[in-house]
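Hi F.,

I've been meaning to write this up properly since the lab meeting, where we talked about keeping a consistent format for the predictions we share between groups. The idea is simple: the sequence comes first, exactly as it goes in, then the structure tokens exactly as they come out, then a line or two of notes. No screenshots and no reformatting. I'm using this chain as the first example so we have something concrete to point to.
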Amino acid sequence: MTSDLSYEGTLREISTESGVLRYHEAGDGPPLLLLHGSGPGVTGWRNFRGNLGVFAEHFRCLVLEFPGFGVSDDFGGHPMVTALESVVKFVDALGLDSVDIIGNSMGGGVAINYAIAHPEKVRRLVTIGGIGKNIFSPGPGEGIKLLQEFTEAPTRERLIQWLHSMVYDPAMVTEELIEERWTQATDPETLDSARRMYSKVAFSMMVKAMEASDAPPPWAMMHKVKAPTLLTWGRDDRVSPLDMALIPMRTIPNAELHVFPNCGHWAMIEQKEAFESAVLAFLRRKDAAGRP
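Output, unedited:
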């Protein structure tokens, strides 16, 4: 197993007309694009560093850092919109014919939108929570509300409350985790970007815009996903509760759902071995014609 993958040793960058995109690269084989979620102090490296060694044994892993989260340049605008733009630019800049994608939370939503717009570019798709629509649970979920409160007025206590909402096991919220998240989350440019997405004003404006628009909401477009899709979910997710999986599970034509017990929003971290096993089996499975 590749266990000596360092931050500096895997870090790469590529220039686009909108700014510099940074990413981590490890392994050889078919390209596997890993897209991180949102939230205070998040980066692609922090979301996936623990999984990189396992996946890099089979794939050329590309962990993209979205614009506006403190690693790649900030493209301006709404970070969720520029995230999709950055995936288009990144895949094209590297000359990739097609990719497998693992998307965590917001990264899963970005991956689905990319797969709908560029079906020929996505071979297989894995999401980790964060998509769909609340059916039985109130929305937004507890974790989103805590995220909004932190974004409005950042304090260490609010960061700790949000981190606890992300996991099933509170022991995972270590001082090291708190410190690295706090440092990144309170960087002025990163905080400004977060407020464009998660301040109460920005969130309210987004909801009103969706209500006033004739365009279908994202959850109503998932039937357009062509790629075989594995939906992964923590049974105890307090950010995007499990009932949110029902619409994507039913409407994505070739979707299957794997639920991890004793697991919050970070399935790839909190149920690391089980997550890696399920995802590798899915990505390496042969299709009906016997092709990998």
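Notes:
The longest strand covers residues 19-26.
The two ends are 22 Å apart (CA to CA).

If this format works for you, I'll send the rest the same way.

G.
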